[in-house]
Specification:
Structural class: alpha+beta
Mean pLDDT: 76
Strand order of the largest sheet: 3-4-5
Radius of gyration: 38 Å
Helix content: 25-40%
Strand content: 15-25%
Low-confidence stretches: 101-114
Shape: rod-shaped
Number of helices: 3
Largest sheet: 3 strands, antiparallel
Distance between the termini: 115 Å
Number of domains: 1
Amino acid sequence: MITHTVVNMTVPETLPSKPRVVVYRKANGLRCAGFTLLETMVSFLILGVGLLGIAALQGNALRYSNQAYLRSQAVIVAYDIFERMRANPAGVSGGYYAPELTENDDALPGFTERSVVNIDCTLRPCTPQQLAVFDMAKWNQSISELLPSGSGSLSATGKNEYTVTINWMEQQNSSPVDEDTPSNGDHSLIIAVAM
C-alpha cells in the first residue's frame, strides 16, 4: 500500500513586486530618466583630458629619467679617471695625465687612440707613462661609449689639483625645453679634485 503525505504550504499573501524605477517628470509632464547624450560626451571629454595629462606626465618622466641616467654615467666616468690616477701615483707625479704641467713636451709621446693598440696594461706590466696613456685612452673610450657625443678632458689646475670636464649631447625632441636645460641639448659636468 502506498501512502501519500500532504505537506501544507502557505503562500504569502503578497508576492514581491518588481524593483521600483523612479521616474522623474519635468514641469511639462515629460519623462526624464538616465543620462543624456550631451552629459555622456562631456564626461568623455573630461576623461580624455585627464588621460592626455597622464600621458604627458609619463613622457616627461621618461625624459627626466634619461637625463638623470646620463648625468650619473658622467659622474661615474669622471671618478673613474680619478681612481685610475690614484692607482698610478708615479704617473701623476710625472705629469703624464696632464702634460701641460710638465716641462718636457714628450710627456705623452704619440698619445692617440691608435697608440693604445700596442699598449695593453691589463696583460703585462707597464711603465707609469704607458699606464697613463692606457688609462686616458680607455677613459676616452668609455666616455664615447656611455654618453651620446661624449668627450672629456683632464687638466691640471695646480700642484696635485685636477679638473675633469665631460661634455655630452642629449637627443632633442619636439617638446619644450626647461629653463634649466640649455636649448641646444649640450650638457657639461665639471669636477675638481685635489690628489
